[in-house]
Amino acid sequence: GETESSKKIKLRVLVVSNRLPLSPVRGGPDSWSFKKSAGGLVSALRGIKDVEAMWIAWAGLNVPDSLGQSTLKDALAEQGCVPIFLDEELVKLYYAGFCNNIIWPLFHYLVLPQNDQLMVAHSFGSQFEAYKRVNQMFSDAVSKYYREGDVVWCHDYHLMLLPKFLKEANSKMAVGWFLHIPFPSVDIYRTVPFGPEILRSILAADLIGFHTYDHMTHFLCACNDILGLERTPEGVQDKGRLTRVAVFPIGIESDRFKQTLELPSVKEHINKLIQRFGGRKVMLGVDRLDMIKGIPQKILAFETFLQDNPSWIDRVVLVQIAVPTRTDVPEYQKLTSKVHEIVGRINGRFGTITAVPIHHLDRSVDFNELCALYAVADVALVTSLRDGMNLVSYEFVACQDSKKGVLILSEFTGAAESLEAGALLVNPWNTTQVASSIKKALIMPTDEREKMHMCNYAYVTTHTSQKWAETFLRALTDTAMKAQSIIRQ
Ligand code: GDG
């Protein structure tokens, strides 16, 4: 007979996000292969029993011909993915424009330079129209694949209008929305063009999730101040309808990092790196090259440290992996040149004939190499000006169980809330403080390092990405079930 567990119905989750969990690579006119992304969400969902995920997202590349589009669709369908195709104009206005040039900086408390801002402001309307159209396209795609009993999990700032469109299409759909970046304080949020409309659309969801208590509070204040809606312990109340709002801090799949460090090839690589660094202390930075990551601030603080502590010259190196992103946006091109200029100047100033203090890489490294770097580093340096959570800090901790290195962490990351006791928290704008924390980290006594590491390690290995996804999905199914029973009454 059937066992209890096989009778259990699998929950089907439609995951909707801007990008797919894999990148299509064109092999020929109608052949495709895929580069899998190691994103936390993918592994989180894969790890949950009794859940089947289907992904709906922008294809991420322009496939102009319908033949190419249909072969790609078929190939992706086998991977549980549904691509949405956007033409170049839409990508420009929706993605590069509204998402990356307006929402991304504002939600991270960054203001655009005055002149650029005026130029962008001129076309805010058309960018928002494109944003709306794309959100509507996502909604249509979800409706096409939705079956009764599914839950829909929308992700991030690209899809803030989606909950409303989905509920308009089918009021019975269980809709959750999670924000991966900070939700800014209400004074900043007020400046977001079309802000009230965006708030109302998000509120159409059954469940809204944030990384931290602060982000959640900012959202609740915005609903109250801007829309006049009442805050309850559960969330936001609007004419008898409750939207549940809660905190779900994301984590990493820590086991995957630990297992990778056990691979013979990775162990070999670690030994090679140790030899290469020749006894010097290693400080590590791993960031997408984005203004929110505070890379210039980090490098300048390292310069101040070397300047104030000349005995450390040639005894410490800073390895900075700066993964290129959004390379078509002018602001990001300017940032790249700025970082290159600073790195060049500092290496010229403190370098010797045989060694330079900063190893700056303008590219990503593969996962195994990343783990090896995390493992050999003595200090990780995270100086984000704002960051929703910051997973790099968690990944460093997961790889440091033998070394027990020190984490220097910006107080403006979500992670600062969870790793408060185990990290040296800094204000990245305070170069003097960051420089002195670098010194403190480099000379920290072993027992103190171990104590701090144990705090971090206990947190990171228990608050995993799988737990995060499970908790969110459980809350979503509960909330949706309650909402349905209220409607039926
Ligand atoms: C957003 C929010 C929030 C980086 N370089 C390489 C590489 N990476 C991987 C890291 C890490 C991921 O990229 C970066 O994640 P973060 O969380 O640090 O930052 P964002 O990309 O800005 O992510 C952030 C996150 O969403 C989740 O909600 O925490 O606040 O901004 O996993 O390992 N991976 C490989 N090579 C690299 O060179 N293989």
From TrEMBL:
Record EC number: 2.4.1.15
Enzyme class: transferase
Keyword terms, alphabetized: Glycosyltransferase, Transferase
Top-level taxon of the source organism: Eukaryota
CC terms in the record's Gene Ontology section: cytosol
Key word Glycoprotein present: no
Gene Ontology MF terms in the entry: alpha,alpha-trehalose-phosphate synthase (UDP-forming) activity; trehalose-phosphatase activity
Family membership noted in the UniProt record: In the N-terminal section; belongs to the glycosyltransferase 20 family.
Record's protein name: alpha,alpha-trehalose-phosphate synthase (UDP-forming)
Species, as recorded: Canna indica (Indian-shot)
Part of the whole protein covered: 79 to 567 of 898
